[in-house]
């Protein structure tokens, strides 16, 4: 059981530098808020045993609702990074450094990522996915393509958690293959393999998956409606949400 002494000086709400937390952009509030608070923890701005700013202060500085913020803090607690206490001296406290077992896992993660340029993978993914979405939407309607996209979308909606990433990959590969460019599809398959290796290093978050499903549905709808601009923008926003999570956990 964690023992946080009341003598540990809590970090007052205004103690974090002004530029560390900023309002998130519309569209990926949960993912970007999680990324920013993970950065605060990585930088050591709140010491082990120290208290994060109050929920109201964090929500205001990040520009998110208290509900969204609590979902973010729940993820951090599940990952063993913070612990919540109630009462007069309660709040959200940074846990002590991970024990040997977790440190070994982190060491293995660092070895796996040593040869991967995360930013390069994320940038290339965004270019390929937004390009594929725009190309798909620009093509004339086709019953076979429509059926394939709808089936791939339905598979992501019906997949159990353990199979979600496979179904998600299949949907995005379908968009790349239906772009009409075999070279784009081949490049996307390669970058998706690298992306999945990165995604396997972070937890599957139910809140993020629900948000991704909303974006998937909007993306397929834009493609089938022939709205290339909307399809490209939705794809970019979707990629940005994944990027925020990966940067938060891995960089």
Automatic annotation (TrEMBL):
SMART domains per record: FCD (SM00895), HTH_GNTR (SM00345)
Keyword Transcription regulation: yes
Stretches assigned to the HTH gntR-type domain: 27-97
One GO MF term: DNA-binding transcription factor activity
Domain of life: Bacteria
Residues covered by region (Disordered): 1-20
UniProt-listed Gene3D superfamilies: GntR ligand-binding domain-like (1.20.120.530), Winged helix-like DNA-binding domain superfamily/Winged helix DNA-binding domain (1.10.10.10)
Statement: the UniProt record of this protein carries the keyword Secreted: no
UniProt entry keywords in alphabetical sequence: DNA-binding, Transcription, Transcription regulation
Pfam families: FCD (PF07729), GntR (PF00392)
Protein name: DNA-binding transcriptional regulator, FadR family
Annotated organism of origin: Streptomyces harbinensis
């Amino acid at each position: 059981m964690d023992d946080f002494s009341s003598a540990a000086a809590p970090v007052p709400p205004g103690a974090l530098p002004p530029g560390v937390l900023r309002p998130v952009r519309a569209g990926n509030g949960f993912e970007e808020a999680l990324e920013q608070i993970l950065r605060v923890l990585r930088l050591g701005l709140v010491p082990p045993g120290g208290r994060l700013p109050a929920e109201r202060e964090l929500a205001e500085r990040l520009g998110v609702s208290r509900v969204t913020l609590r979902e973010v803090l729940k993820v951090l607690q599940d990952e063993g990074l913070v612990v919540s206490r109630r009462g007069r001296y309660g709040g959200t406290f940074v846990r002590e450094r991970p024990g040997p077992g977790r440190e070994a896992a982190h060491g293995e993660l660092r070895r796996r990522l040593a040869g991967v340029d995360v930013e390069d993978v994320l940038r290339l993914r965004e270019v390929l996915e937004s390009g594929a979405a725009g190309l798909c939407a620009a093509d004339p309607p086709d019953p076979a393509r429509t059926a394939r996209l709808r089936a791939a979308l339905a598979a992501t909606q019906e997949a159990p958690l353990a199979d979600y990433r496979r179904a998600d990959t299949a949907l995005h590969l379908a968009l790349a293959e239906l772009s009409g460019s075999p070279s784009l599809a081949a490049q996307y398959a390669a970058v998706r393999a690298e992306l999945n290796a990165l995604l396997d290093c972070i937890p599957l978050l139910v809140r993020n998956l629900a948000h991704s499903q909303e974006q998937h549905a909007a993306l397929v709808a834009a493609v089938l409606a022939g709205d290339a601009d909307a399809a490209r923008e939705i794809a970019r926003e979707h990629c940005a949400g994944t990027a925020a999570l990966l940067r938060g956990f891995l960089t």
